[in-house]
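Per reviewer request, we include the raw input and output of the structure prediction for the construct analysed in the revised manuscript.
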Amino acid sequence: NSKYEMLKKGDIATETKTNSDGSFFAGPLYEDIGYEVEASKAGYHLKQTGPYSFACQKLGQILVHIYGEKDTEMLPTVLLSLSGEGGYRKNSVSGSGGTFSFDNLFPRSYYLRALLKEYKFTPSTVAIDLNSGDSRAVEFRATRVAFSAMGSVTLLTGQPKEGVFVEARSESRGYYEEATTDSFGRFRLRGLIPGSSYSIRVVAKDNLRLAAVERASPESVSVDVDEEDISGIGFVVFERPEATILSCHVEG
């Protein structure tokens, strides 16, 4: 005995693959049901030209490799910004080893930039004319031009304080950077320029999620930036009390 079950709209009745000449066969199919035929292939764009016929176009690929000043240098993840004709734009980040692949790209002219704070990239922008099915390789060389100051913020009890704003300001040169502490009380001020002096301090901004900071000790820390990161900066903060209790004694 066999059981007949009616297909619902959107169900897949059958799947098949094309032969070497691009033709395909599917069936047997019920003759009293209407069917829609769809085709897909990874790396190709397919356009339906008839009830059972398709035209395909092989899509392109851009392979990106990012190197440090030394080929063995491990870089943080880099933002890759790809733009093209017709308003095309895609932002991605490089993987481990400084590599990334933009796949399934239509033929057009593209512009590719690599972006990472504290680094300069050579070239700054790459123009790419991509034809159908092209695979192009692009290389960037990253040079570090700025550095970081790292530290932590705790309460008087030693408990880490999250959500505290910390700033680095160079009054003589007008440079300014800001960071916020994470759940471990750690902060990292990026983009400090070598040869500059900065004053680093806690900023008493309101944070709606956390208790506000009233003051910090020390009030500020001065650093001279060389061509290396600075670590070990520490602040102890005192939270602003949510209410003030006043007690007094009146003598008659």
